[in-house]
Amino acid sequence: MPTPADVTLEATNNADTQVPTSLLDTFLLSLLAGFAAVFTPCVFPLVPVTVTMFLKRAESKGKGVITALWYSLSIILIYTIPTVILTSIFGDKILYSISTSAVSNLLFFLIFIVFGISLLGGFELQLPNKWANSVDGKASKGGFIGIFFMALTLVIVSFSCTGPLVGLLLGSTSSQGISLAPVLGMLGFSLGLALPFTVFALFPSMIKSLPRSGGWLNSVKVFFGFIELALAMKFLSNVDLIYHWGILDRDVFLSIWIVLFILMGMYLLGKLQFSHDSDLPYITLPRLFFAIAAFCFAVYMIPGLWGAPLKPLSGLIPPATTQDFNVLLTNNQAATNLTVNNSAAQPPKKLTDKLKLPFGLVGYFDLEEGMAAAKVLNKPIMLDFTGHSCANCRKMEEEVWSNPQVLQTLRNEFVIISLYTDERTELPLNEQYTNASGERITTIGEKNLDYQKEKFKFNAQPLYMFLDNNGNTLSDVRYGYDNNINKFLTHLNKVIAVYKERSK
């Protein structure tokens, strides 16, 4: 029977209470991205022109405000409704498949490279002109339908600037395994993009305070171009990790980012110019501060080339286990070997040529192999449902597992079984099967994900579940990403207490 403390812990740690926090973060970040899109060359010049037109055409200020509100709502509907339809049709499974598929990640990588080069001035990306002309013709009819088509015209003509941000949102939110995340992402983005039109309609005098269009808008575009190139590496890294190519290890990845952000800083200081840039007679304070930030970020990443944790970037960069030379792993290697050699259980064998646990921890990557070791060692099992492309998994490891108390508890008190749900290694033919839904399970990742969904009714990662030696759960809490170290440590201690009580 669970104790009152267990019930309290479940109420505070249950994954159902963690998901809204993740969704809220998605919405807020998307909202900021929408605001940022307003200051791109494709959108910013249209804000005062559009709002002024609304107010002049309307018979009164009130009607002008209503027109602006409908215009803003139309932008939100144009971005959000297609996302709702797609996620309603395909659901969580297709989103997870997209986030872990080599094809989709390579496609996102190529899209971001193309968008990045375009934003740097290599060429101009535009949707077909006939689309914009056709929609613009319908917009001139007036009324609410005409205003809707005006909003659609804005979406189309601003594609070259907003497209990269939309692609980033869809690419990142699809990896969360929650169908609501992309919808909230598009809702937040479109709200941030549309809100200024309503605000300036309510307070038209503010239009005069807007800075004039000019060369600074192109600088914003180039700034986003460097960001796009940096983020493209993340999608290529996902494929590299899933298929164990070893091309984009952590040190190579960081080297590329360091160079990109140094170049960004040089550009902001006017030391690097492109053919379409305006002359820069002097450096403004905003450019100076953004340049300082770019250089500081590059300098911050340099120690990571030798194994520094870089915890704030743990969800974006490859794990430290992929690094050729890592001081921390080198220091922990002796402790790792000692633990294996002195263990009564068989050391892990399956997938150890491809997978490693962080911080020198010894763990298993096969359920049956880990269960057998747990019985020999008489220790509880921590199931670590994780993924190569799971950003929150890496953040949890760097922010929580790295804590000395947590690390000691995991190393001494548990048998860790890490089950990668996107591992593409083929199962032997005699282990392939058809699951209860009629799907053919042919890879280790599919098997691990199927086990997670069938046993725990949850398909997002990370997920930490705890079992006794007979495979029975020690806690009903579906513990997901939460960077509260004390909460996780408390949960581990509760699980240990339940295991010891059950073993009497």
Keywords:
single chain, 504 residues, mainly alpha, Glutaredoxin, 2 domains, two-stranded antiparallel sheet, 62% helix, globular, disordered N terminus
Could you give the distance between the termini? 14 Å
Outline the biggest β-sheet. Answer: 4 strands, mixed
- Specify the structural class: mainly alpha
Radius of gyration: 26 Å
Poorly predicted tracts of residues: 1-21, 174-178, 330-342
Describe the overall structure.
By secondary structure, the protein is mainly alpha-helical. The protein folds into two domains: about 200 residues, no CATH class; about 180 residues, Glutaredoxin, CATH 3.40.30. The protein contains 18 helices and six strands. The strands form two sheets. It has a four-stranded mixed β-sheet with strand order 1-3-2-6, sandwiched between helices. A two-stranded antiparallel ribbon has the order 4-5. The longest helix has about 40 residues. The radius of gyration is 26 Å and the shape is globular. The N terminus is likely disordered.
What are the SSEs and their pairings?
Layout: H1 4-13, H2 15-38, H3 46-57, H4 61-100, H5 102-119, H6 129-139, H7 143-157, H8 159-173, H9 180-202, H10 215-243, H11 250-268, H12 285-301, H13 327-341, E1 363-364, H14 367-377, E2 381-386, H15 391-401, H16 404-413, E3 415-420, E4 433-434, E5 440-441, H17 444-456, E6 463-467, H18 485-503
Helix pairs in contact: 2-8, 2-9, 3-4, 3-9, 4-7, 4-9, 5-8, 5-10, 6-7, 8-9, 10-11, 11-12, 16-18
Quick overview:
By secondary structure, the protein is mainly alpha-helical. The protein contains 18 helices and six strands.
